[in-house]
Design brief:
The complex is a heterodimer of chains A (120) and B (196). By secondary structure, chain A is mainly alpha-helical. Chain A contains 4 helices and no strands. Chain B starts with a helix and ends in a 16-residue tail after the last helix. In chain B, helix 2 runs antiparallel to helix 3. Chain B is elongated and about 60 Å long. Classes of the chains: A mainly alpha (120), B mainly alpha (196). Chains A and B meet through helix 3 and helix 4 of A and helix 2, helix 3, helix 5, helix 6 and helix 8 of B.
């Protein structure tokens, strides 16, 4: 194997996502450059992993801003659902009124045709 | 599960069923970590603030859909990553803070060389080097190596293929390694010439 082929795999080998097969192990054992590169990747990943525990100081006032934004979004949502509710009620009212008007009209027509039949 | 974990789970459950104050408490518990991730992804405080606010709004709107397959933090990290990606794309940020050929500047040259390998200093050097990576490379190494997100999730949140995410990660690590711990024969700038 060549250094270039091995070098591409070194970070994954350190990470444990790629197993080091016999040919890679054989190459690294005999290659000082790849040994050094492997050691440096170990060092790098260890150093990067250290950042996992680090929490950076949030900017002042950030929490207040986030909560205010959420409050506003919540109010917008509540207003929207209120308007939606009113719209539904309004449309339902229209539908009921239209239904009632239709029923009344049908009754009038029925009565009229009955009277015409009796008169005839 | 620890007390904090149980408390957080209880808050997530309450927030999922519409309890706004429970969501507010979740924000108080988690916003420093969300901000830390946003700052690492965006590289500056103003953008990080915008990203965190946007992320919590999205989280608030989507909390009912949170199924608990992952922890709340992981779910939140994905949202933060997605918001950061959107923000970076929208602003079309042309960043020029790429690592230069001279490597990462030593901000504490007067420190005893023997102490340089010690934790805090090493951590600062790595954080500074991360901050100077191009956005697209920094995002993958932050999400994978610091926040431990799977390649699949990283690809989904950044809007790239899984293969592209892996290639970017490889280049990011290589670039970091070459600049933080250069070996004889390394050619700085070689990686940056090959854009993903």
């Amino acid at each position: 194997m060549q250094c270039d082929q091995v070098a591409d795999l070194l970070p994954q080998i350190v990470e444990g996502t790629v197993p080091a097969d016999r040919r890679i192990v054989h190459h690294v054992d005999a290659c000082l450059r790849c040994q050094a590169e492997l050691a440096q990747y170990r060092r790098l990943l260890r150093a990067v992993h250290q950042l996992r525990t680090q929490v950076l100081e949030p900017a002042p006032g950030l929490l207040t801003e986030i909560l205010a934004g959420l409050e506003e979004a919540g109010e917008r949502g509540a207003l929207r659902s209120l308007l939606t509710g009113r719209r539904v009620a309004y449309l339902s009212g229209l539908a009921v009124a239209a239904g009632a008007a239709g029923a009344a009209g049908a009754l009038v027509l029925a009565n009229r045709s009955r009277r015409m039949r009796l008169a005839g | 599960m620890g007390r904090d974990g149980a408390e957080r789970l209880e808050l997530v459950r309450a927030a999922s069923s519409g309890d706004r104050s429970a969501f507010g408490e979740l924000v108080e518990l988690t916003y420093p970590e969300a901000y830390t991730l946003a700052l690492r992804l965006m590289g500056n405080e103003d953008d990080a603030r915008d990203v965190v606010q946007d992320a919590y709004l999205r989280a608030y709107k989507g909390i009912r859909r949170f199924r608990g397959d992952s922890s709340f933090s992981t779910w939140l990290y994905r949202i933060v990553a997605n918001c950061a990606s959107t923000q970076l794309t929208r602003r079309g940020k042309a960043r020029h803070e790429e690592l230069d050929d001279a490597g990462v500047a030593d901000e504490r040259p007067d420190v005893d060389p023997e102490l340089r390998a010690e934790g805090a200093f090493e951590r600062d050097r790595v954080a500074a080097a991360l901050g100077r990576l191009p956005d697209r490379l920094r995002a993958v190494i932050v999400l994978r190596d610091i926040y431990d997100l799977p390649h699949e999730d990283i690809a989904a949140e950044l809007g790239i293929s899984e293969a592209a995410a892996k290639v970017r990660l490889h280049r990011a690590r290589r670039k970091m390694r070459e600049h933080l711990y250069p070996l004889r024969g390394d050619q700085p700038g070689e990686e940056s010439a090959r854009a993903v």
